[in-house]
Amino acid sequence: MKKDQVKDCEDVISSMEFIVENINEVIKLLDREAIICMLQKILGGERVFLMGAGRSGLVAKAFAMRLMHLGFTVYVVGETTTPAVRPQDVVIAISGSGETRSIADLGKIVKDIGSTLITVTSKKESTLGKISDIAMILPSKTKNDHDVGGSLEKSMRGDYKNSPPLGTAFEITSLVFLDSVIAQLITLTGASEAELKSRHTNIE
Hints:
Structural class: alpha/beta
Largest sheet: 5 strands, parallel
Strand content: 5-15%
Strand order of the largest sheet: 2-1-3-4-5
Number of strands: 5
C-alpha cells in the first residue's frame, strides 16, 4: 500500500479505546490480597529476578529497571551477568498464557531451588499459575486466545474492527500493572524522585 492511500486512522483510535477498556476491566478484577502479598515478598526478598519471553520479556526488563532505580538488587534471567538464584530470592515471571515452555521450565527450577515464585499471567490454571507462590492474574487476550470474554467480546462482535494483535492486551496491561506496583513501592520505601534519578544510567 502506498502512503497516499492512507485516508484515516480509525484503527489507531479504536485500538487505544480497546486497550483502555481492557485495563479498566482488569482493575475491577484485581486480587488486592495477592498484590499485597506480592509487595511483601518483593520488599522481603534478598534479591529480585525477572523473567519473560518475547514482548513479555521486554516488560520484565522495564520492571527490573524501575526496581533498580528504587535501589533493589535486581537481575534479568538470561543475561550474561545474572548470578545463581538462591532460596531467599524472589523470582517474578511474566507470561500471558502461563505456558511459555522456556519460562514454565524455569519456574519449575525456581520452585526446586526453594525461591519465591511470583507469576504475572492471564491464566490462573496454567502451568505457571499452579506452581507459583503468588499468581497475579490479569485477564487479557493472549496470542493463543480466540475468545476470553469481557470487553474482548466486542472484538468478536465487530465493535472493534481491528483490535491489537496477539498478546498486546496482556503485555500492555502487565506493563501498566507493574509500573503501578512501582508507584506503591515508592510510597512504601519513601523513595524520592531525586533518588530514582540518581540511579538512572549516566552513560546512555
